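Morning!

This is the sequence you dropped in the shared folder:
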Amino acid sequence: MGKIKDAANTALNAVKTWTFWKELFIMTFGMMISAAAVNYFLIPSKLIVGSISGLSIVISGIFEIFSIPVKVSSIIIIINAILLIMAYLLIDKEFGIKTVYTALILGPLMDLWEMILPASSLLTDGSTSVMGDIWLDLCCFVLLLSAAQAILFHINASTGGLDILAKIVNKYLHFDIGASISVAGAIICCTAFAINPFRMVVIGLIGTWINGVVVDYFTASINKRKRVCIISDDHEVLRQYIIKDLDRGCSLYKVTGGYSDREQTEIQALLTQDEFSSLMDFMKKNNIHGFITAGNVSEIYGLWKQH
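The structure's back. Tokens below.
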């Protein structure tokens, strides 16, 4: 009973924080994008891109062969329920709990989009493509889904389904998240042979590969930080500015100039793009000179405020 009470108190305290409501909004917004992508570009064209939504379309198509109507959204909920248990056990509790929410609202959000604007109303002359071309449907779906996946990965959540498998591969085999999505998605794509011709399966495989590449691009863009190295006689002034004004940590190293044979102090920090710009403005306004290098970093582990 004590553990249950502690868990309830922890959950209650979390609900009272701004971070909780901000991340709830982000997760809902991300899933609205995912639901629209599936409902308008995947289902009408029966395009099977490597995802749980794609696998659900295959299963629904197989049931249709036997004249058994089953909604794609219902199959998504069932498969996600199984994968959510895997997420909770194999990844971490935070990821699992967040993905419970995102995975369970995908199906209802698809139904909501269908109520607001039925996909059939966007189809003309018996077409099965909203954009009028299967390749345009593929591009729209991949761009929307990849953006949603990158947004959710950034807050340690996911769209559920395939993302859970990709996150497991990423954690235990240390593949890039995009490569993990591509590998898991390619396997799912091959199930499309049950309902689609060879050409459609190949298009799905291409879309799955593009999805992985685009997710890596979006993820790198969202997570991008600047690794800044400065050698300056005013390193103490810079250190105080970084710590007190930018609220970031930094590291100090003693270095010796190969040309001057002079010992100096190098200061290193990881900053956002805006913080890097502020630092450069601060140095310019205060006439602080130094040797500066800066490079992009897309992955950071640990506490990067206190390094």
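Headline: The chain has a mean pLDDT of 78.

More detail when I'm at my desk.
O.
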